[in-house]
Every structure is written in C-alpha cells, then in structure tokens.
Amino acid sequence: MQRYELDAWLGDDHGLDENQLAELLQQADEIEGRFPDPDDHAEKHVALVTAYKLIKGDESVIDELAMDRVKARAAESRALAGLQQAARMAGAANESAFARRARVDRMTVRKWRDKR
User: Fold this and answer.
1) How big is the chain by its Cα radius of gyration, in Å?
2) Minimal CA–CA distance to 87: which of 63, 108, 109, 115?
3) What is the C-alpha to C-alpha distance for residues 34 and 46, in angstroms, rounded to an integer?
4) Tens digit of pLDDT for each residue in 50-60?
5) Whole-number pLDDT of residue 12
C-alpha cells in the first residue's frame, strides 16, 4: 500500500503521529501480503481496521472480534443442525442437488444421512 492510499483510507482526522503512520503502513503491506486475492477484501479491511485500532491503543477491538467469532460459531452450529436435519429428510435421489444447495459436498450429505 502506498502512503497516499493509506492517507485516503484514514482521512484527515486519524489521530496518528508519523511513527504510528509508518507502523500502520508497514502493517498494511504485511496484510496485503497475507490477503493478496481480490476476493479477500473483507478480511483485508478487518485486519487493517484492527491494526489501526491497536496502534491507537484501543485493545477493546480484541474483545469485539472474539465476541464476533463466538457469535459466528454459534450461527454456524445452528445452520449445520438445520442442514443436517434437512439432509436426513431429503430423498436419496436428491443428494447431489441438496449438496449444491447447501454448499457442501455430496459425501458430507451422505455422512449426515449415515450413508458413508
């Protein structure tokens, strides 16, 4: 990331001194290296926001992210329970179609239906 890109992203009222800006620019470059794919935009953004907050001394971001993760895992668990039930109720002829709709592979559907 170029400095002008970071300045544009931060805006004028970012509250960082030159040393902090240099550190954030270094972090931004490392983040771009970890998330090079354009499809990783959301992950890259969250990582950059996290770096910015930590450099500003706002460690509450760690607790916020941890809670987001707990909520996401709970949501995934509920969704999987529902999908497993739906898979059990789907007919055997529909396993491939169900797998596509559920965005899992057919072997996962077979496992859910105890058809290994």
Assistant:
1) 21
2) 109
3) 13
4) 999 999 999 99
5) 87
Q: Which two tokens stand for residue 73?
A: 């895992």
Element (H, E) at 79: helix 60-89
What does 10-75 look like in DSSP terms, one character per residue?
H-S-----HHHHHHHHHHHHHHHHH--SGGGHHHHHHHHHHHHHHHTT-THHHHHHHHHHHHHHHH
pLDDT over 80 at 34, yes or no: yes
Residue with tokens 């992210």: 65
Angstrom distances, CA of residue 96 to CA of 87, 91, 99, 102 = 11, 10, 5, 10
Q: What is the mean pLDDT of residues 15-40?
A: 96
Q: What is the DSSP string of 52-64?
A: HHHHTT-THHHHH
Which pLDDT belongs to residue 84? 94
d(CA 101, CA 47): 31
With both helix axes pointing from N to C terminus, report the angle between 3-10 and 18-34 in degrees, rounded to the nearest 10.
100
Average pLDDT over residues 22-44: 96
